[in-house]
Write a structure and sequence with these properties.
This protein is of the alpha/beta class. The protein has 2 domains: about 150 residues, Alpha-Beta Complex (Aspartate Aminotransferase, domain 1); about 230 residues, Aspartate Aminotransferase, domain 2 (3-Layer(aba) Sandwich), CATH 3.40.640. The strands form 4 sheets. Strands 4-12-11-10-7-5-6 form a 7-stranded mixed beta sheet, with helices on both faces. Strands 1-2-3-15 form a 4-stranded mixed beta sheet. A hairpin with a 5-residue loop joins strand 8 and strand 9. Helix 3 runs antiparallel to helix 11 and helix 12 packs parallel to helix 14. The chain is globular, with a radius of gyration of 21 Å. The mean pLDDT is about 95. The structure holds pyridoxal-5'-phosphate. The site of pyridoxal-5'-phosphate has 15 residues, from helix 5.
Length: about 400
């Protein structure tokens, strides 16, 4: 009774005091362990959402707790970017050592990372005396965030329409349409940006040919290529970076979601050629790269980039794809993805299935209308896949009658 009252009480407060921009299910999460979340009635939920591809190491991870604890013992949570501290330098070094990049700028979220990358692209052109080189090419189905710059390259009416006017000079091309890019890109293009695997847009992978051709076109027109790996980066595909499977490197890459195990962080990774044009005072942030978040991120990066860890993600990801393709349901249109970033496209709106999942102790999230997006903690095991398949099969059977 006590806990029911707690749930009711909290839900009522949320209803009364929060801006009503989210619709949430009517249970209250109070703790988590591994792949599992528990509500106030101690009902478990197998978590195939992971805080939207954030909680790569799951819940209650002792290594994460230790990284937090060790940093707290120094007393430094935040100092601002006015001063030198240890963890952000070490994290930047570790990111550079494991990527195409030469330098890193830290911020606090995915949208901020993209915002910064767009600013850097304009700054590079401006610094080179090309003041009219301001245009951006982005893609259908993209999701880059909700602040004005990122929103401007997120071509979804529902997100954009109430907030116009947006950034000028954005051209949207169909994802994976090489010819479209060839027509859209000009010498006024300062950047082309895409997700190497689209998350929110429904788990669509960029093809290697597309990535190669866009790289060439960018070089021809002096435009910078930006990869948004906010969702697909940091081990999710079984590669540390999703673009490793494409054989193409960008000029900038944005990352965020899983980087600090759930603490807010974002980063823009850039080549030296980009960094050469970013000067003192050009961009800044109060919180970005703080000692606590970067300590934790260094721990996450060291864990996630281990070959054994990445092999585990590939192994469980392959098993997931295999088990999903065995489900015999006329509602399934396609199963696709890489590693533990998988989409199950149905012939129907998936939101009732997500809702009924709650009844069956399963947390699922959609990607668009027809796709169930499976982005669990990267510590998921075969037995977690088995549980998912059992419950999902039931849900699909229910939905079909
Ligand atoms: C979530 C996401 C973002 C935005 O990240 P926020 O931290 O919510 O601002 C940007 N790009 C991609 C690919 C994402 O999945």
């Amino acid at each position: 009774m006590q806990t029911l009252n707690l749930t009711d009480d909290i839900l009522e407060k949320e209803h009364d005091y929060l801006v009503q921009s989210y619709q949430r299910p009517s249970f209250l999460l109070v703790r988590g362990q591994g792949m599992t979340l528990y509500d106030a009635q101690d009902k478990p939920y197998a978590d195939w959402v992971a805080g939207i591809a954030v909680n790569a190491l799951g819940y209650g991870d002792p290594g994460v707790a230790q990284a937090i604890q060790r940093q707290l013992e120094t007393g430094l949570i935040h100092t601002s970017n006015l001063y030198h501290t240890i963890p952000h330098a070490r994290l930047a070094e570790a990111l550079v050592a494991r990527s195409f990049a030469d330098r890193v700028f830290f911020c606090n979220s995915g949208t901020e990372a993209n915002e910064g990358a767009l600013k850097f692209a304009r700054r590079v052109a401006y610094d080179s005396g090309q003041t009219d080189k301001t245009e951006i090419v982005a893609f259908s189905g993209a999701f880059h965030g909700r602040t004005f710059g990122s929103l401007s390259i997120t071509p979804k009416d529902k997100y954009q329409k109430p907030f116009k006017p947006l950034l000028q000079g954005v051209t949207i091309v169909d994802y994976n349409d090489i010819e479209g890019v060839r027509q859209a890109i000009t010498d006024k293009t300062c950047a082309v940006i895409f997700e190497t695997i689209q998350g929110e847009g429904g788990i669509h992978c960029a093809t290697p040919e597309f990535a190669r051709e866009v790289r060439c076109l960018c070089d021809m027109h002096g435009a910078l290529l930006i990869f948004d790996e906010v969702q697909c980066g940091m081990g999710r595909t079984g590669h540390l970076w999703a673009h490793e499977a494409l054989g193409v490197t960008p000029d900038m890459m944005t990352i965020a979601k899983p980087l600090a195990a759930g603490l807010p962080i974002g980063a823009i990774l850039v080549t030296q050629a980009v960094a050469d044009h970013i000067h003192l005072g050009d961009h800044g942030t109060t919180f970005g790269g703080g000692p606590l978040v970067t300590s934790v991120a260094l721990h996450v990066l060291e864990r996630v980039s281990q070959p054994d860890f990445l092999a585990h993600v590939r192994d469980v990801g392959d098993y997931l794809l295999e088990r999903l393709s065995e489900i015999n349901s006329p509602l399934i249109r396609q199963v696709r993805g890489r590693g533990l970033m998988v989409g199950l496209e149905l012939t129907i709106d998936v939101s009732p299935i997500v809702k009924q999942g709650y009844e069956r102790s399963l947390l699922l999230v959609n990607a668009g209308t027809n796709v169930i997006r499976l982005v669990p903690p990267l510590i998921a095991r075969h037995s977690d896949v088995d549980f998912l398949i059992e419950r999902l099969s039931l849900l699909l059977e229910q939905a079909h009658v």
